[in-house]
Design a protein that fits this description.
The complex is a heterodimer of chains A (882) and B (109). With 882 residues, chain A is of the alpha+beta class. Helices cover 54% and strands 16% of the residues of chain A. In chain B, strands 1-3-2 form a three-stranded antiparallel beta sheet. The chains are: A alpha+beta (882), B alpha+beta (109).
Chain lengths: 882, 109
């Protein structure tokens, strides 16, 4: 038997069969005693005499038994069990104390677990595939460090050829929320992901039923196939076998379901769940497959085990630049890099990393404040139990044992706090996901606490308990026996330590208050920001006409719908645009005065194709020239309206009207500038796209498409009913989708700010409450300690108001010290908020002043009760007290 | 290797291992045998002996078994294990070096 196993077996035996081991030890020593007596008799002593001699020699038998037990190393395990049970008993005797401590810990731990579990689900959790560490995403950087990750199908094929020997290169067009019709039934919405046929082989995800997409599904002429997710299989097909072979119609094309992807796999985005995968070679227009301009695919690769990443990256980079030199002669140089993609494409990660990081730091700060509170409570309890500790120490308990005992109590509290925290986190995590910036596709995160999150919670809880209990435990074990047994023992050290904890708490809450103030101001500024058009009366919606097969008939139906909506009472105007007028992402192209192309200059402009009456409906003011007339919408469109930033950039002080711009959008063409409009923030209140330059192109009227925008005097709910009714008149299958006030889109753009802002305010409130409780506790204790002093003062003629202000002054002194620490801390912390605040400086002095005043005011309120108690001390009873 | 405080304890361990290398025996016999072999110089007290035995057992160097003793009573017999005899060789070696070194210093001074 290996040695460690022997040891373990013996140790286990000592622990479990304790009685038996002890009996054996007795028997062994008894035997020894008998032999010793016999030996004495042999040496010539009388039996009685020999027995006494032996007993004398073995006097220390109890002690050697104890030593034998120590040697068996079972005492420490036994002690842990004993200490824990003792701690539980002690805590049950003071339920209020325990409850307060557990609640504070649960709050702090819960907040941390909630933020961590969201962070883990979005950023850290590996995809449920084999060896996720071998997955990379191919992204490119420009010299300014801007990341890009979209490629054309031709470029993808080139990359596949470059890396083909060292890994599987595959791609996805990303997910889209669209309408599909399953088995010829009424259309329903589903999240569809268009992927290359080697997507599943590259990810190494198998099928739970049927098969996944295979490389040959790419080949032209074959029967188009689709794979569905386990979730869809269960919800839509009740996990039945008839799912396979069913047809799915997506954008006029019919696919046959051939399999169900393995459980848990929902695509390569951590925060969105794909329902249906289809091969993009089938779904994408043939012209896109052939062009290098349609950069719509995100490319990933599974590198072979043991492949040299750096070398492959360098090779891919060289090929990438050669391809771009060949096909994108007029664009700045970019460099290709591998980005680890084991946790999925980090498109969400990029978006959420910073806000989640800020939240994580904030909740850690809150936890520290909770710990300070718990430490203060434990300290008070230790003070109250001085007598008990002194007795135990005088009876021979070692200081180490007392230390461990106080610690054990805290650990028990910590574990209870962890349980409460997990429950809170479960609810809080969901709230947090609700606050995350939502895109078109609903965010769905798997927040079921798994082992990793559980381990995080437990280690946070134990660390918190240890940190909070360390000083109290040290003080408990340092109790002086004699002093501790005296009734009137003072605790100056306890007060000093408690005060420094409170200073820390107040400083911490000041930091969070200042951050919350910045965010409150930011939210206000964002709400009031002038975005250049009238967003209040505007609604937006999309329409689809699944029954109209040809583009021509679809166009006619679209035009009919806009006319019907425009004729509704209360609707002032209707227009449309295929570009989202208020959303991330858009369309941009190169623009230059003919003959003045400069590859080194930034000549990108944002392009918006707009339908008739666009500027009227949105209320965008014309500055110069004219806007589009119906004639401008007749193909081929050759006129352009630009905004003031574009006019300044290309034409300086000269009038741009009648000037020409060559624009590379759908193709390259020369346009005549007919008008200049006010600058409008189409891409977000704070986003600067293409240096704010925007060019509006008239959408040709033979193919009206896009989001319909209506300006109306009716509330959006009432208007929806009217629009639906019009759609029904046109036919049963005309669908009105995503009907929303444009204001919703606008505020959706600032969701990140709102998330950080809301949570900063909540956490600051929490921190202030914790600080108030801590301050109250310390002042109440201090007043109790100084009862006699106050009694003497009052007896000697001090007015109660003087005593009152003494206590308040004590509180304000603490706050003053806290401000000295908190303000530099806040300056450091608020730097994290760069990029989130809007319309207010990070160092805004009035914000600092308001936060400091709030803290001071709150401190005075917290001090009021102890102060009044001090002022109301009855001199006679206070002096008689001892 | 050995700290000064380990000296006495370590030495007792060595003596026990050495005696047990002869044959398995119980605690009393071990103390008695050490006493005899050392020509009545070394007296091992039970308060040192039993903790040492239990520690050695815990370390896996000796193992114990209850058997009938020579006077027909139940006694706990200790026996050297394989790792115990290895440890003994090492300890003995170390002791030789140490004692030789000490004698050198004592005589030379």
């Amino acid at each position: 038997m290996p040695r460690w196993l022997t040891q373990f077996r013996l140790r286990l035996r000592s622990l479990i069969r304790k009685g038996r081991v002890d009996r054996e030890l007795d028997e062994e020593l008894q035997y020894h005693l008998e032999r010793k007596v016999e030996h004495g008799v042999v040496e010539g002593l009388g039996p009685q005499e020999a027995r006494y001699a032996a007993l004398r020699a073995m006097g220390a038998i109890t002690q050697s038994k104890e030593e034998c037990r120590d040697m068996r190393g079972l005492n420490w395990i036994e002690n842990i069990v004993k200490d824990t049970l003792y701690a539980v008993r002690g805590l049950r005797r003071s339920p209020v104390f325990s409850l307060v401590v557990i609640l504070s810990l649960a709050l702090g731990i819960g907040a941390n677990t909630a933020v961590y579990s969201v962070m883990y689900a979005v950023l850290l959790r590996s995809l449920p595939v084999n060896d996720p560490e071998h997955l990379v995403q191919l992204v490119s950087y420009d010299s300014a460090g801007n990341v890009e990750g979209s490629y054309s199908f031709r470029h993808f094929n080139e990359m596949k050829a470059t890396l083909g020997n060292d890994g599987e290169v595959f791609a996805t067009r990303g997910q889209s929320l669209t309408r599909v019709s399953i088995a010829g039934q009424k259309s329903e919405s589903a999240i569809v992901e268009e992927v290359t046929a080697n997507y599943f082989t590259g990810l190494q995800v198998g099928a739970s039923n049927g098969r996944v997409l295979l490389p040959h599904d790419d080949e032209a002429g074959g029967n188009p196939v689709a794979v569905i997710s386990q979730t869809m299989w269960q919800q839509r097909f009740a996990a039945g076998s008839r799912a396979i072979g069913t047809t799915v119609k997506h954008k006029d094309r019919v696919y046959t379901i051939v399999g169900v992807a393995l459980q848990n796999f929902h695509g390569v985005e951590a925060h969105q769940q794909t329902d249906i995968w289809i091969p993009l070679t089938v779904s994408m227009p043939a012209s896109w497959l052939a062009s290098t301009g349609s950069q719509v695919m995100q490319v990933m690769a599974r590198l072979k085990a043991g492949a040299n990443h750096a070398q492959l990256e360098a090779a891919a980079d060289v090929a990438f630049r050669r391809f771009r030199e060949e096909h994108f002669t007029r664009e700045p140089v970019r460099y290709l890099r591998f980005r680890p993609a084991g946790a999925g494409l980090s498109s969400a990660g990029q978006e959420y990393r910073k806000p989640l990081l800020i939240l994580m730091i904030s909740v850690v700060l809150v936890l520290v404040l909770c710990c300070a509170n718990v430490a203060n409570l434990l300290l008070a309890r230790q003070q109250a139990r001085r007598h008990e500790f002194a007795v135990r120490l005088s009876l021979g308990a070692s200081r180490g044992r007392v230390f461990v005992q106080v610690l054990a109590e805290a650990m028990v509290l910590g574990m209870m706090g962890a349980i409460g925290g997990l429950a809170l986190a479960f609810a809080g995590g969901r709230l947090l996901v609700g606050l995350l910036p939502q895109g078109r596709i609903p965010i769905s995160l798997d927040l079921t606490p798994d082992l990793q999150v559980l381990a995080f919670t437990v280690s946070v809880a134990l660390t918190a308990a240890f940190v909070a209990a360390f000083a109290p435990a040290l003080r408990a074990s340092g109790t002086k026996e004699v002093e501790g047994l005296r009734q009137d023992a003072r605790a100056v050290g306890r007060l000093r330590f408690g005060k420094s904890l409170v200073i820390g708490q107040v400083a911490g809450s000041l930091v969070l208050l200042i951050a919350a103030g910045l965010m409150m101001q930011t939210l206000r500024n964002l709400r009031l920001a002038d975005i250049g058009f009238d967003r209040d009366a505007l609604v937006a919606f999309e329409a689809s006409f699944p029954d109209e097969v040809s583009a021509q008939r679809r166009g006619a139906a679209f035009r009919e719908l806009t006319q019907r909506v425009g004729a509704l009472p209360g609707v002032k105007g209707v227009t449309y645009s295929p570009e989202s007028i208020y959303a991330r992402g858009g369309w941009a192209g190169l623009a230059y005065v003919p003959g003045e192309f400069n590859p080194r200059a930034d000549q990108q402009v944002a392009l918006l194709r707009v339908g008739p009456h666009f500027f009227d409906v949105l209320g965008i003011r014309l500055v110069q020239g004219r806007v589009f007339s119906p004639a401008d919408h007749r193909p081929p469109v050759r006129t352009v309206v630009i905004n003031q930033a574009t006019a300044r950039y290309y034409f300086g002080g000269h009038s741009p009207i009648g000037q020409r711009l060559e624009i590379k959008g759908d193709g390259t063409a020369v346009f005549e500038v007919i008008g200049v409009v006010r600058d409008v923030k189409h891409y977000g209140i704070r986003e600067r796209v293409c240096g704010d330059r925007v060019a509006y192109l008239a959408l040709s009227d033979d193919r009206p498409i896009g989001t319909i925008l209506a300006s109306s005097a009716i509330g959006s709910g009432g208007l929806l009913q009217l629009v639906r009714a019009e759609a029904r008149k046109m036919g049963p299958t005309v669908l009105i989708e995503r009907f929303r006030p444009v204001e919703a889109d606008v505020s959706g753009m600032t969701a990140k700010e709102r998330m950080v802002g809301t949570l900063a305010i909540v956490l600051a409130g929490l921190a202030v409450v914790l600080a108030v409780v801590g301050l109250y506790g310390v002042l109440a204790y201090s007043v109790e300690q100084r009862r006699r002093e106050f009694g003497v003062r009052l007896a000697l003629g001090a007015a109660p108001s003087t005593v009152l202000s003494m206590v308040i002054r004590e509180a304000l002194l603490l706050v003053g010290v806290a401000l000295l620490i908190g303000i530099p801390g806040a300056l450091a912390f608020s730097r994290l908020l760069r990029g989130f605040v809007y319309g207010i400086a990070l160092t805004d002095s009035s914000n600092f002043a308001i936060a400091s005043l709030t803290v001071a005011l709150v401190a005075c309120v917290a001090a009021l009760i102890p102060a009044r108690r001090a002022a109301n001390v009855d001199p006679a009873s206070a002096l008689r007290f001892e | 290797m050995s700290k000064p405080t380990d000296l006495v304890q370590g030495t007792l361990d060595l003596l026990i291992l050495k005696v047990l290398a002869l044959e398995p025996m119980h605690g009393w016999a071990i103390a008695h045998r050490i006493h005899q072999i050392s020509s009545n110089v070394l007296q091992v007290g039970e308060s040192a002996l039993y903790p040492a035995l239990h520690k050695l057992e815990q370390q896996g160097w000796i193992e114990a078994e209850w058997k009938k003793s020579e006077n027909n009573r139940r006694a706990k017999y200790y026996r050297l294990t394989r790792s115990g005899s290895k440890a003994m060789a090492k300890e003995a070696d170390q002791w030789e070096r140490l004692s030789a070194a000490i004698s050198l210093v004592v005589r030379g001074a």
